[in-house]
Amino acid sequence: MERVMGGGMLQLFLASTGILLLYRILVRLRPGAALQDAVVVITGASSGLGKECARAFHAAGARLVLCGRDAGRLQQVVQELTASSTGSQRQTYTPSTVIFNLADTDTVDRAADEILKCFGQVDVLINNAGISYRGNILDTHLSVQRDVMETNYFGPIALTQALLPSMVHRRSGHIVVISSVQGKMAIPYRSAYAASKHATQAYFDCLRAEIERYGIPVTVISPGYIRTSLSVNAVTGDGSKYGVLDKTTAMGRDPRDVAQAVLKAVRQRSKDVVLAGPMPNLAIYLRTLWPALFFKLMSSRARKEQKPKAE
Ligand SMILES: NC(=O)c1ccc[n+]([C@@H]2O[C@H](COP(=O)([O-])OP(=O)(O)OC[C@H]3O[C@@H](n4cnc5c(N)ncnc54)[C@H](OP(=O)(O)O)[C@@H]3O)[C@@H](O)[C@H]2O)c1
Question: What distance in angstroms lies between residue 232's CA and the mean position of ligand 1's atoms?
Fold first, then answer.
């Protein structure tokens, strides 16, 4: 009897493994979404990952709307992209720009109207802009926690909600958000940032389920460290600029590689992508499967990293 049960279990295991493998192969073989002529909106396109996404999607033939707060820096990106198009085999387009501050959610509706006017529709919205934070909770003003939340969470969801009705109306579109591995597990001295990215993950997971029926996919991308100015631009507990290129960020992934991974995720309409090495992936699993160990490791990291000023 036991042998029969054991054989049955083995068959079930082999069958489910086979189905899983087949599913993965089919997902890989699925034709990618075409990006030639697609209208792609990228927030935070003036630097770092946003700028590299702009390069990647421009080269793929997309019609870009680049967003940021600094008109001069965005114009520089437009010029670089236009110059890079010379001799390209593809039809490429001069990007449009829309200037607005994501932290000022009252202005986002106006910005969304401006974005829609650029090419008459939005096919892919990439919510990329963001700001980081370094600080000890004991010394952090509540206003700083709120400001980071405005830029990283309320801004992107306000823009998404303003552009979504036009996608639902057309039964077409794609929402992408650049979160972080810190949207899946929280590390010490990053409270405002990790909280904003956890909120982001939760909101866009809900959105995915709610709008799937309209044929609009939602992709959450969670990278580990990327070699950009994110830590330099980060805010500290009193709201001043951190101004330091952290070693972890300096040794992070090349933003060009991450941008190619974003392009691939958009083409494959992936739902949730973690772009990180084995350690962050292990930490994410530990947080779910062995939280007691994860909390111990984080406490020890907090003790080692910094002596809280407020002690
Ligand atoms: N670098 C990393 O290690 C890392 C890891 C995981 C996830 N990420 C995520 O990747 C995304 C891109 O960051 P990055 O690494 O490329 O950093 P970055 O070089 O500092 O770029 C941030 C971009 O966001 C824009 N931005 C910031 N605040 C804004 C606001 N209030 N309104 C509108 N735009 C604003 C900036 O544009 P202006 O200043 O010109 O307005 C800039 O273009 C962020 O969401 C970040 O959380 C980064």
Answer: 11
